[in-house]
Amino acid sequence: MGNRFLQASSTSLSQRAVQAYLNSDDPDVLKWYAYMEGAVSLSFDDIEKLTIPELSVMVYCTNERIKNQAQVEAGRMISG
Known about the structure:
It is elongated, with a radius of gyration of 14 Å. The mean pLDDT is 89. By secondary structure, it is an all-alpha fold. The longest helix is centred in the last third of the chain and has 28 residues, at 52-79. The chain is built from four helices and no strands.
């Protein structure tokens, strides 16, 4: 996922930087949105290969994924 936002670095990204990346036109952003929506998963091998900035994106997307899943479950409980 080679983007200038995600170049190999020993520094994690702020939430604001992650959001800026996710609003960019980088083609890999679609993969992160698919992950956020639960359409794809990351294996341990995939995670092991991520740079520190990419790990920041993964943590943000994982938190959003959890929020989305909780909202779906709450909606099922209300309507079911």
